[in-house]
From TrEMBL:
It comes from Mangrovimicrobium sediminis. GO terms for molecular function: electron transfer activity; heme binding; metal ion binding. SUPFAM superfamilies: Cytochrome c, Soluble quinoprotein glucose dehydrogenase. Residues 30-110 form the Cytochrome c domain. This is Cytochrome c domain-containing protein. Gene3D superfamilies: Cytochrome c-like domain, TolB, C-terminal domain. Keywords: Heme, Iron, Metal-binding. Residues 312-335 are annotated as: Disordered.
Length: 510
């Protein structure tokens, strides 16, 4: 055997070992979760392993709690409800963050959400729901071939579907999905699946119609463009890119590049954190979210594209009133500073214009707890990873920001308008408009992944005044859109494929 063959076999074995180790580590991390272990050690004697209660302490999961079940209320209960016990002694020696982690653990268990990996493999439930303002049926419109990421209902009732690893396709009004559309951007099969999550490099991320689509036919796509040797990398790398094009005779044509970055900013970090959500305001701008597809230290470096909302005109030119605009002659090579609209974002999986089209809002996943809804302000710093309502998955406070040496005052950041703790993993959303559900007019309809729940949030004067879980057991909701028929459409993933669902008003009994 030649030396290079031995070297190659050695390298392959080493890689297999690392991959095996990583898979084992990730698949067993639930059992090592520190707040679960802390509960078993300090609380389970009285409240039971499954939190179901014993003769020495009340049930913490089924039914209402006497002293409330928000995270702050649970923290207060842990501190105040156990005078003169071991818990009282032990409390002295642990940090308030650990108490928060335990409170979050109890709150999460009360929600009975599946684990992230289990959430992929549960079936979708067609159901009739009586919600606060409307009674509706959840109905399956189509089975999808691959996991969907976004949908765009067309005025004629057809629906464009962006499937991450299959690309762009069309679903007819009677629920038949076509083959990938010829000429649309190339996508790549997943590299691996870890705990249900597919790791991809080169996927389709969003599809949106131009606000004047009826006149100009423009369709906007965002995808992670993948390259390798052709952009100077020994291994495959990818990065968010925005294109527009039109459909003619069932083909993707007239393609134009609207926003892209220098190949130096392409990375091997999988696309799950790429984001790539698109939205239009009423002044001819298109916005795109870019997640932390690189070390977090970049989120506050304005010259790098990561952790930002970017803004360009709908033809890809750069508006001079962008908050960090620089004329071309003054730009650092490769910098994207001139298109940055806001920064310090984590994983913005949702982006949409509020009714009227003036304000842009996003949804952003927190770490463990602290999912956020934000109103996007020009030049705004959204604080991640120095400030968050959540804690780390390990149960420890998030110290990434400090570790990176980030230093800015909380007062200089834009706080979220709505927070979800514990975190359902909120994903994409839309503002409801239309005749079918008049009681929801202008409300946010927000999807979630792990909780498989559609939420309705009402804002008045920029403040949350109402929140309702409209329906649950829906699959991992990747996109929420209003159809041309005024019905609410959802793209959900379950297993290795997905479904297109819709909410239809009904007077049917349950
Ligand atoms: C020695 C037994 C004992 C241990 C250990 C114990 N608890 Fe309790 N816990 C109780 C009892 C009894 C109550 C009811 C007291 C009351 O309502 O004032 C209670 C109340 C609570 C409540 C409020 C319940 C409600 O209805 O509002 C919470 C939350 C709670 N415990 C969490 C914990 C956590 C978390 C731990 C571990 C850090 C823990 N407990 C450890 C006995 C225990």
């Amino acid at each position: 055997m030649s030396w290079w063959l031995k070297l190659l076999i050695g390298l392959a074995l080493l890689l297999a070992l690392i991959a095996g180790g990583a898979t084992w580590y990730l698949s067993t991390s639930d059992q090592r979760e520190p707040s679960k272990l802390a509960f078993a050690e300090h609380c389970a004697d009285c409240h039971g392993d499954g939190l179901q209660g014993t003769s020495a302490g009340p049930d913490l999961v089924s039914g209402a709690l006497a002293h409330g079940d928000t995270v702050p209320q649970l923290m207060a209960s842990i501190v105040e409800r156990h005078p003169g016990s071991d818990v009282a002694d032990w409390r002295e020696s642990i940090s308030s963050e650990s108490i928060k982690a335990l409170a979050l653990y109890v709150a999460e268990r009360r929600r009975a959400w599946p684990s992230t990996s289990d959430s992929y493999f549960l079936d979708v439930e067609e159901q009739v729901v009586s919600s606060q303002y409307h009674r509706f049926r959840v109905e399956k419109v189509a089975e999808l071939v691959a996991r969907p990421y976004a949908i765009a209902p067309l005025p004629d009732g057809r629906i464009l579907v962006a499937e991450k690893s299959r690309g762009l396709s069309m679903v007819t009004p009677d629920g038949v999905q076509g083959e990938p559309i010829a000429g649309s951007p190339e996508v790549w099969a997943p590299i691996a699946t870890v705990r249900g999550s597919q790791l991809t490099l080169g996927s389709l991320l969003d599809v949106e119609l131009h606000p004047a689509f009826a006149d100009n036919g423009w369709i906007y796509l965002s995808h992670t463009h993948r390259c390798q040797l052709d952009c100077g990398s020994p291994w495959p790398v990818s990065m968010v890119r925005v294109l527009r094009g039109r459909l003619r005779d069932g083909q993707w044509v007239d393609e134009e590049l609207i926003w892209s970055v220098d190949p130096d900013y392409y990375t091997v970090v999988p696309d799950a954190v790429a984001c790539g959500r698109l939205a239009f305001d009423n002044a001819g701008h298109v916005y795109v979210t870019v997640g932390g597809k690189a070390p977090y230290s970049n989120l506050h470096k304005l010259d790098t594209p990561y952790g930002k909302v970017h803004r360009v005109r709908d033809d890809g030119t750069v508006p001079e009133d962008n908050p960090f605009y620089l004329p071309e002659s003054e730009r650092q090579e490769g910098s994207t500073r001139h298109t940055v609209y806001s920064y310090g974002h984590r994983t913005a999986q949702g982006l949409a214009a509020a009714p009227g089209g003036q304000a842009i809002w996003n949804t952003e996943m927190g770490p463990r707890g602290g999912d956020e809804v934000n109103r996007i302000e020009a030049g705004g710093n959204y604080g991640w990873p120095l400030y968050t309502g959540g804690i780390d998955y390990s149960g420890e406070p998030v110290t990434i920001g400090e570790d990176l040496g980030l230093d800015f005052a909380y007062e200089d950041t834009v706080p979220p308008v709505v927070e979800f703790t514990p975190a359902p993993a909120i994903s994409s959303f839309t503002f409801h408009r239309g005749e079918q559900f008049p009681g929801w007019e202008n409300d946010m309809l927000i999807g979630s992944l792990k909780a498989r729940t559609l939420y309705r949030v009402r804002l008045r004067d920029g403040v949350e005044v109402e929140r309702e879980a409209l329906a649950t057991n829906l699959g991992r909701i990747r996109d929420v859109e209003m159809g041309a028929d005024g019905l609410v459409y959802l793209a959900v993933e379950h297993g290795d494929n997905g479904s297109l669902l819709r909410l239809v008003p009904t007077s049917e009994p349950m």
